[in-house]
């Protein structure tokens, strides 16, 4: 059993396509009396509550409302906030449940819900088969001979095939049920044997292309019921992590394809859009913020995402316009800064193979640790490779800034800051400031520019920048 944290959001979808009179689910949960039990559901990896009911002296209550619940996998939660068992909700939402918490596996009975009769039978079979597989896996770890290992591996394979045959039989016998749709969506592609690969030999590229092209065979991106399942988001994440090249153009193509097919299901479109925005607004890998910019320009800024709150829309607008100015490969914005003596020292006046732009604050604890290390690698290596460091003081005050520079002997840097009068003039004229142009929301923040001031890398560690500089210089030497 799984514990869930409360309070959870009591979410209610505004999208109700089915024409029903609502839901009426009578539940008898022994031995609890005069206690609340809850009806919850999955939303991707999240769990939320849809309803609650106070059980009477007979351990009975009714989940009931005039509006039907969106289809999906739901679950019953005990008074002490433990998930007891799962159930399916689809078109039929008028039924009853009876169970005893002392013997859940044998006591759950659904009346008036053929979908859940089928689901319970499948759940029991899956649990029994899963336990057998786990037992064999434990035996495999303790096997002492190749003969034993081979026999146990064969049993595990046979159990897996048995499970798949059972699933296939449900799909064949009950093709129009929600469970059949779930099993189809969960099914993994089976790559043909090596004899069927081009040339009759195993081809890893062919296997990859086949697996990727059939990954979504059983999934309908206009089926909003999949949103309320615990596996769909995991499957979605695995696809983009393992099968889609981490290149903005490739990801944009895949994202557009999914969103196009999801348009007929507003709930699925909303779910996918929120998922992609949250994934790429602060991406795991450098350069993939271009995916968020694509989403913003094609969908958000064209009025197709009204489901976002005003506050989140404002946040997206600020992040998008910050990212647009500093995408990888594009020219960096010029920085009209002054040095420690208030002499003009604009970024574009620097002539070098590479420029490391370091945004930092002398009072920032992380900066106090990292900036001296940046200086160490600059003194020991970068300056001999034709790298300049353009250090921008963003906060902390001029006095603290100068004190830090002297104390740590940050010699050779182009130390600059923005005059308050310049910042005021930019704001008065409606010009974006350097924080927006470089998306400076934390310090220290490092950018790597080439000799033409194009952005090579950003928001990486100084060690990562060093690796990139080495690779760029090595590549340049090979081409000369």
List the helices and strands and how they pair.
Layout: E1 23-30, E2 36-43, E3 46-54, E4 60-65, E5 72-77, E6 83-89, E7 94-100, H1 104-107, E8 109-111, H2 114-142, H3 146-173, H4 178-186, H5 204-213, H6 232-243, H7 248-261, H8 266-280, H9 289-300, H10 310-324, E9 354-360, H11 365-380, E10 387-393, H12 398-408, E11 414-417, H13 420-429, H14 434-437, E12 445-450, E13 455-458, H15 462-479
Parallel strand pairs: 1-7, 9-10, 10-11
Antiparallel strand pairs: 1-4, 2-3, 2-5, 5-6, 7-8, 9-12, 12-13
Helix pairs in contact: 2-3, 3-4, 7-8, 7-9, 8-9, 9-10
Task: Provide a descriptive summary of the structure in words.
By secondary structure, the chain is α+β, with helices and mostly antiparallel strands. It folds into four domains: 23-112, Immunoglobulin-like (Sandwich); 114-133 and 163-187, no CATH class; 194-324, no CATH class; 347-479, 3-Layer(aba) Sandwich (Glutaredoxin), CATH 3.40.30.10. It has 15 helices and 13 strands. The protein has helices spanning 104-107, 114-142, 146-173, 178-186, 204-213, 232-243, 248-261, 266-280, 289-300, 310-324, 365-380, 398-408, 420-429, 434-437, 462-479; strands spanning 23-30, 36-43, 46-54, 60-65, 72-77, 83-89, 94-100, 109-111, 354-360, 387-393, 414-417, 445-450, 455-458. It has a five-stranded mixed beta sheet with strand order 11-10-9-12-13, covered by helices on one side. A four-stranded mixed beta sheet has the order 4-1-7-8. It starts with 22 loop residues before the first strand and ends with a helix.
